[in-house]
Amino acid sequence: MRILCAVDGSHASQIALDAMGTLYGPHADEVIILHVVDTSPFRGLRAVGPTGRTRVAKARAALDRTASELLRRATGAVTTALHQSGSAPKATISSALMHGRPAAAITAQAERRAVDVIVLGSRRITDDRGFLLGSVARKVLAGNTRSVFVVKTPLSSRPQVVLAIDGSPPAHSAVCFLRRWPLPENAHLTVLSVVPPVLDELAATVLPLAKLAHLAKPAAERTKRLVAQTRESFLGQGAAVSGEVLDGRPGPVIIKYLEKAKADLVVMGSRGLTGEERFVLGSVAEDVVHHAPCSALIVKR
Fold first, then answer.
1. Are 24 and 70 members of one domain?
2. Tell me, what's the pLDDT at 57?
3. Is residue 71's pLDDT more than 50?
4. Measured between alpha carbons, how far is 5 from 35 in angstroms, rounded to an integer?
5. Of 173, 178, 170, 102, which Cα lies nearest the Cα of 140?
6. Going by DSSP bridges, is the β-strand pair 160-164/188-195 parallel, antiparallel, or unpaired?
7. Global model pTM greater than 0.90
8. What is the rounded CA–CA span in Å between residue 167 and residue 164?
């Protein structure tokens, strides 16, 4: 597994490195630690005369020195995390310093290195619904074709992981990701699928309950089979896994379940556009990752 860890020296960044070591240290072949010096504040300052240009150059040099020290400390943190996971002899660690807009630079580096997953911490911003993602995490999620592990909170000693599926190709990709790189032995996996309403709210108020139940039955049965089959596939790998089928609008239902289950991580696939169009999150995955109270792994291929 090739992993790109984007770091910025924050507490959230340190939590992300620890989570990376816990979940993916045993699978890591290569870990790339990236820091991006945001040069946008310096744009438009080149035409301020020789003295101004000298000051800008000195400021950028100071930022580069700080960034180099940050990368040195992050390399030490990753080495410690990999040692704790027992994978230090296997994984190689390198660091990279880039300049530019952070989200764009992270995306470019991930594509150039052909990484399997991008790992980054997210400073949580509260609103009436809970926690939102920071702007860099949002842009990285929306702007690249690589899987992204957004770490919001530290993992518990026995990580509770929820795999949200719906039978779609992106959901199958998420299943394959977890089967290719299994969770730690002490983790518990819940396979969750939500049966969406078969009719809109207005129609549901007109039809009798018996008719509504009849219409919903095929979808409910398909969902139960999907969860049971997926659960069996993980049981075959020796994982601790349970299944859960719920009803309602998928996004809000998944978020509510994550809160109730005190989940550490939600794993989902995400639909994307092909060709030259930009890869974007599907509406359910976008809603969940932005408002989930826990970390999120969005599998994109």
1. yes
2. 77
3. yes
4. 9
5. 102
6. parallel
7. no
8. 10
Judgement on whether residues 77 and 179 belong to the same structural domain of the protein: no
Contact 243, 253 (CB under 8 A): no
Q: Contact 80/69 with Cβ under 8 angstroms?
A: no
Q: What is the greatest pairwise CA distance in the chain? A: 80
| Residues paired with 149 in a beta bridge | 119, 297
pLDDT digits (tens, 9 = 90+) for 125-173: 444 444 445 678 888 888 788 999 999 999 998 999 999 999 999 999 9
**CATH code at 197?**
3.40.50.620
Domain that residue 67 falls in: 1-154
Q: Is-contact 94 72, C-beta < 8 A?
A: no
Confidence tier at 70 by pLDDT (50, 70, 90): very high
For residues 59 and 242, what is the distance between their CA atoms, to the nearest angstrom? 54
With CA atoms as reference, report the closest residue to 226 among 197, 195, 200, 264: 195
Query: In the prediction, which pLDDT does 46 show?
Result: 56
What pLDDT does 203 receive?
53
The structure tokens 């289950």 sit at 261
